[in-house]
Amino acid sequence: MAESDISALVKCIRTDLDCADMCDATVKVLTRQTAYDLTVIRSVVSACLTTVIACAEECERHAAHHVHCAICADVCRQAEVACRDLLVALDARQTGSPVGAPN
What we know:
- This protein is mainly α.
- It has one domain.
- The chain contains 3 helices and no strands.
- The longest helix is centred in the C-terminal third of the chain and has 29 residues, at 67-95.
């Protein structure tokens, strides 16, 4: 928020904040030590995936000019992989297939 061209980064900052909130909410839902609903878990992880992709894409637009945007984009891409992997594992659990096995 201390950048001199803050007006050019408003959408990026908003996307970053949305992403941080969504990731925080996802962690809270996933780490509860009680019974869970796979449909709810899948929906939350899917929403997180959508958010981290949007954030990565927005930060990639600014990455050449702002190191923090490059770092954010990279971390979001890592989170994207983690969300995709978790969705595969959830699908396998729901169908009873081993993770990585063809459905």
